[in-house]
Design a protein that fits this description.
Length: about 425
């Protein structure tokens, strides 16, 4: 058999699971608080801070038509007895760790995909066992239910993309097996939008070319896809054909492999009131930059690129701007200054164009222990700022993130009680 044929055959012998915790935030709340079990519940933002939307819903709330992303007042109209709880990300992180602890008892190849999802490679595990992949998936599902009080949907396949498709195929509390003998019947008839990383814009482009199902994409001309989508078109065609050979990459806590699983650190916030002056904008920029820089230091990374995102209060439209710094940094003052300069260069910061929210992001990462080019002109302030951040970090570790605040952040009283680092939402990482 040719070498490429042997490689394809080896790939098809892989056993990949994708486990997705159902209605994760709501399920974790119900597991943590028994009095909430069985009642229609949603996890919603702080309405007094204009974050009043449904972030997650329980099965009971979903049954009466509540949907993620709608306003809480709309959800209450559908379900007058709806229970609304504010998000507690420390709880969700705890349940995420507990679920992964179960996964690690079956394989050390566990790749997180956000808090509530993970891929598992059980190829080696099952090669040493007489058990079937379906039996093991059902056992994992039952253990999560018994030990955590949550349910998972698990997809089983020979590649990560079809495993992810399988976990989405039937919900909640289901196991779906997608194998070479049945994927044309299960995956190919589905909407092309059901395939991993086919978003609304990509789906629209594919539809304009007559490609509406995963099967259409799998059989489409590579040249057509290249013209319509560039190199991503070929990648998506590979996904649709079940030819993805991407390995499950375990997250190594000891090595802190953030450079592989996270490409940037960012925080955004919908402001409690429209931002219509420089003082309020400065307070919010510094609050967000504090969180981003602190998380960079905790992960022992520096960033070369700083970006800001802006959302307009009038029509909720948005845009982003970024700048590459002369040298990588995780100093709060440097990141905040770069973000502030970007903002004032693009916004009047007055009542002619009030802003709804802002976002600060640091990317183009490098490890803190990576060598840096020496500066010809030594900057004594740089070391002083690093020492200041280190002292502030230690105080916050001991007494909480709001124990010490910069004067700039106190300019807007509505932000005094916010802890954007604590309430940061960890989202799935990108594939590319």
């Amino acid at each position: 058999m040719p070498e490429d044929g042997l490689l394809e055959e080896r790939n098809r012998r892989r056993v990949i699971f994708h486990s997705d915790m159902n209605a994760f935030y709501a399920s974790a709340e119900q597991a943590e608080r028994p009095e909430l079990r069985g009642v229609p519940l949603v996890v919603g933002g702080h309405e007094e801070r204009r974050h009043g939307i449904v972030l997650a819903k329980s099965a009971q709330a979903k049954a009466v038509g509540v949907v993620t992303g709608e306003a809480l007042w709309q959800a209450r109209e559908k379900c007058p007895g709806l229970v609304v709880v504010t998000p507690r990300y420390d709880v969700y992180q705890k349940y995420s760790r507990l679920a992964r602890r179960i996964y690690y008892q079956y394989t050390d190849l566990v790749e997180p995909f956000g808090l509530d999802e993970a891929w598992l490679d059980l190829t080696g595990t099952l090669a040493l066992s007489s058990r079937s992949a379906l039996d093991v998936a059902c056992e994992i599902s039952q253990r999560v239910k018994d030990e955590l009080g949550c349910t998972v949907s698990i997809g089983v396949s020979w590649n990560k993309v079809f495993a992810k498709f399988g976990s989405d195929y039937r919900k909640p509390d289901a196991v779906t097996v997608v194998v070479p003998d049945n994927y044309r019947d299960i995956v190919w008839p589905a909407s092309v939008g059901d395939l991993l990383y086919v978003g609304s814009a990509t789906r629209a482009k594919l539809h304009s070319s007559g490609i509406d199902t995963v099967g259409d994409l799998a059989c489409a001309s590579p040249e057509l896809l290249r013209r319509r989508l560039g190199k991503v078109g070929g990648m998506l065609r590979t996904f649709a054909r079940g030819e993805d050979a991407t390995p499950v990459k375990p997250f190594d806590m000891a090595r802190n492999e953030v450079d592989r699983t996270v490409k940037s650190f960012g925080n955004g916030l919908t402001a409690p009131h429209d931002i219509a002056c420089e003082a309020d904008a400065r307070a919010l920029i510094w609050l967000l930059a504090e969180s981003v820089a602190q998380r960079l230091r905790e992960a022992r990374f520096r960033a070369r690129t700083v970006s800001v995102g802006v959302r307009d209060a009038a029509d909720l439209s948005g845009y982003g701007r970024q700048v590459t710094l002369p040298r990588a940094t995780n100093v709060t003052g440097r990141i905040a200054r770069a973000a502030w300069d970007l903002l004032v260069a693009n916004e009047p910061l007055d009542d002619t164009r009030p802003l709804r929210g802002l976002h600060v992001r640091a990317s183009n990462l490098e490890p803190m222990d990576a060598p840096q080019q020496l500066e010809l002109a030594f900057d004594p302030r740089r070391r002083a700022l690093e020492d200041l951040d280190e002292a502030v970090d230690e105080l916050r570790r001991r007494f909480g993130n709001t124990c010490i605040q910069r004067g700039t952040e106190l300019l807007d009283e509505s932000l005094l009680d916010l802890d954007v680092k604590r309430d940061n939402v960890v989202h799935p990482v990108g594939w590319f």
